[in-house]
Amino acid sequence: MVDYLIFLAISTAIFALFGLGLNLQWGFTGLINFGHIAFMTLGAYTTVLLSLKGVPLLLSAMIGAIVAAILGLVIGLATLRLREDYLSIVTVGVGELIRLVVNNQELPVGDTWIAGAFGVQSYTIPLSTTPNLFVRLVMIGLLTLLMLITCFCLWRWVGPSRLSPNAEAKIRYKIESTSRLIVGLIFGILATAIYVSGVIGLYNYNPKAGLMLLVLLVLAFVFWRLQILVRSPWGRVLKAIREDEEIPKAMGKNVFWYKVQSLMLGGAIAGVAGAFFAWQLSAIYPDNFQPQLTFDAWIMVILGGSGNNIGTLLGAVIYFAYDAITREVLPKIVPLDEARLGAFRVMVIGLILMVLMIWRPQGILGKKEELTLGK
């Protein structure tokens, strides 16, 4: 059970990172990116291939993020001066193009070249060797600190909302406070379960527990910096571009360059997620990077609420909780074979999305005035 919770925590954190990059591009800037997986693919393969050449893992991951950002620059320069739908069409093509190139080209693995379709295995993974007791206690201390910061942030976030004391505001306050309380409780319970599993996994050292700590620390850092960025003047310009780019243009802002920056930064975050995805899998193949992963990220962002980073985290948690529960429970309830059961699970999450779009199109934590769907 502990190992499974650690696996779920790693998967959720990786796709929360992946979703945060997409949310920056679409939720805050209004850029429709249907090929987000391209950035993850470049980040994963760059990190792995460089590490096999002896480049330190941290530097490999940073270079992978830079390569993904450069892809964002190339896509932006090629499409962002055109109509918005060109970006969505190009990104779909780029995502598949990169996967097919990797699949059909020979890759430099160590001192030899192998066909991309055979995948890449036996590469170095962070924190794979068992550390001594002191280092393990330090890692547990870091996890504890992260847990305390998470609880403090949840307590502040669930706290009273500042609304004007009229009747409409009171209704909004009740709805908002109730939804925040429920979400806070969900996050709190899951954080506690992950914390306990992490402490056990780190003390009786499990390399996956070390990877879990590392990805959670990176996720916390990226989330913190993104929150600061989107509340800064730079972030406000992105929101203005999302609403009506003619307004920031009239104010003298270089709208094109802001869009490119958003595409590059979102791509870099997805590249970091790709490095962790490769480390989690321990062996990567082109088929690990199917277009479906992009639409999984879209589901997470839409569920949680576009233009809301906490909503993206919530969407990732809900998605993987649904995935884990249905994998374990549905076979005992629904008498279907494995192939049909997989299709049924996809059908159910599609139905959930349809209901959500009717009941709350802005997502669970999204704001209706910041809705980007249909724009």
From TrEMBL:
It is a multi-pass membrane protein. Keywords: Cell membrane, Membrane, Transmembrane, Transmembrane helix. It is found in: Cell membrane. CDD domains: TM_PBP1_LivM_like. InterPro entries: ABC_transp_permease, LivM-like. One of its GO terms (cellular component) is plasma membrane. Its main location: membrane. GO terms for molecular function: branched-chain amino acid transmembrane transporter activity. The keyword Transmembrane applies. The keyword Calcium does not apply. The chain crosses the membrane at residues 6-24, 31-52, 58-79, 133-158, 179-203, 209-226, 263-285, 297-322, 342-359. PANTHER family: HIGH-AFFINITY BRANCHED-CHAIN AMINO ACID TRANSPORT PROTEIN BRAE, HIGH-AFFINITY BRANCHED-CHAIN AMINO ACID TRANSPORT SYSTEM PERMEASE. This is ABC-type branched-chain amino acid transport system, permease component. It comes from Cylindrospermum stagnale PCC 7417.
